[in-house]
Amino acid sequence: MKKNFLPFRCYVPVLVLAVCWLGCPACSDEAVEPEPSVPQPETTYPDAYQDKERTQPYPKTSNELIVNPAPFLVPQAMKTGERLQYALSRTEDFEDAEISEPQDGCMYNLHRALDAGTWYWRFRSTDAEGAGPGAWSETYAFEVKSETPVFITPPFEDFLENAPRVHPRLYCFLNPYIHEARQNVTSHPEYRQLTARASIALEADYGAMNLYADAETLRQHATWLYHAYYLTQDERYADKLVELLDAMLALPPTDAQLFTDNFTTSALTLAHAAVYDLLYGRLTATQRSGAEELMMRALRHSYQEQCGVEENHIFDNHFWQQNMRILTQAAFLLYDKAEYADEALPILKYYYELWTARAPASGFNRDGIWHNGTGYFPANVKTLAYMPALFSYVARFDFLQHPWYRNAGRALAYTNPPDSKSTGFGDNSENGDAPNRLTAAFADYLARETGDAYAGWYAGECQSLVRQDYELRLYRMCSNRTYESALPEDAAKMVWYSDAGEVSMHSHLGDAGNDLALSFRSSTFGSGSHTTASQNAFNLLFKGHDVYRSTGYYQAFADAHNLMSYRHTRAHNTILVNGIGQPYSTEGYGSIVRALGGNHISYALGDASHAYCGISDDPMWVNYFAQAGITQTPDNGFGETPLTRYRRHVLMLHPRTVLIYDELEASEPVRWDWLLHSPVRFDINEAEQVLSTADEADGFYAVTQLFGSSEMDITQTDQFAVPPATGGAEYPNQWHLTASTDNQPATRYLTLIQVCEAGESPYIIRRDGDTFTWGDWTVEACLNASGSPRLVVRHRTEPVVFSYGEESPVIDGVPYLRQEASSSLLYDETDGEYQVMEMTDRAPIATRKGF
Question: Where is the Heparinase II N-terminal domain (predicted)?
Answer without folding.
Answer: 79-206, 223-479
